[in-house]
Amino acid sequence: SDKKISGNQLIDNVVDYVSDTDHWIRNKKTVGVVEYATIEGMKIKSKLDTGNGSFNVIHAKKIKLLNNSRISFNFNGKTFVKKIIKTQNIRFGGGEDEDRYVVAMNMSMFREKNEPIMFTLDDRTHNVYNVLIGKKYLLHKNYVVDVAKKFTHK
């Protein structure tokens, strides 16, 4: 049966549909599992980690709490002093967890605009990559990771 609606109802329905981001078609960018990220002006080999809950991680050494709101650490041979955004509890497989400091680091990928991105600080001495980029950032940028590829955009 044909349903009759007013012009205003039609407009409301169209506006509701278009406003719902689930209906938006965005261009996705296919990227590799390992890419370069520019963090604080330094080009760093980074793993795009689709299995990582949502947290970006950088390899930080000599982490020192300066006061309740600031922290110093070494990353890629440079010393940084940053505001502590928060402390994040990170859970690992096997039921283990730890609290990590979160700081904002300026980052860009693929010659895009630099923006402050939240990173947890961790000693990644025994890991292959000093930087993990998590799912939240990948979704934010509309990146699709092809695990068969590396360094897709030099």
Tell me the major beta sheet: 6 strands, mixed, barrel
Structural class: mainly beta
- Average pLDDT taken over every residue: 87
Strand content: over 45%
Q: What would you call the shape?
A: elongated
Structure explained in plain terms:
It is a single chain. This protein has 154 residues and is mainly beta. The protein contains 2 helices and 11 strands; from the N terminus they run H-E-E-E-E-E-E-E-E-E-E-H-E. The protein has helices at residues 7-19, 135-141, and strands at 29-39, 42-48, 56-59, 61-65, 70-75, 78-83, 86-91, 97-109, 115-122, 131-133, 143-150. The strands form 2 sheets. A 6-stranded mixed barrel has the order 1-2-10-3-9-8. A hairpin with a 4-residue loop joins strand 4 and strand 5 (70-75). The longest helix has 13 residues, at 7-19. The N and C termini lie far apart (57 Å). The mean pLDDT is 87.
